Amino acid sequence: MKKNVLIIAALMVGSICLAQNTNNVQLGVRGGANFATVAGDDFDSPDSRTSFYLGLLAEAPLSDHVSLQPEVYYSAQGFDITDEPDTPDAQFQVDYIQVPVLLKFYIADGLNIQAGPQFGFKVNEEIDFDPTEDGGDFDTDSINGFDLQGAAGLEYKFPSGFFIQGRYSYGFSEMIEDVDLHNSVWSAGLGFMF
């Protein structure tokens, strides 16, 4: 896993260096709400876990209408376990450090679409039988430590540097070996470019 992190970090640094004019690189922060669940033939789609994401980004212009945007952020994902007979309500919590490398296409002044690969590194996995309190956590270790995903979204960036965005990401990797189970996350949030 350490090798994967180093490769991803090198890709991010190299991506920014490839930008035509590094003087125009902007750094920023972003955060918001995740509506995460899982999808796949081997698992009925459970209720989504509503949680958060928070992280950093850089935007490097490649031309007047195209930018490269690498990011790194913490993403709380998983799903709710509800309405099961003889089972209390709970959450299956799988949290990641996500590293997307997105191409942004400006289609109008401030309005852009973005898409690209996303590399997820699992940092936490547990079942929480009391999601609204500090107790009730039961650690598990059944989910793979790495998740290759695709991400796409829509964003509007104001001249002040604030932006609003919505995004969807889908895991191409199986979360559990030989089980058709994949991350599926809708997110909405705000950010600021310095």
TrEMBL record:
It comes from the Bacteria. Keywords: Signal. Residues 1-19 form the signal peptide. InterPro entries: Beta-barrel_OMP_2, OMP/PagP_B-barrel. Transmembrane segments: none annotated. The keyword Membrane does not apply. Residues 19-176 form the Outer membrane protein beta-barrel domain. SUPFAM superfamilies: OMPA-like. This is Porin family protein. It comes from Flagellimonas iocasae.
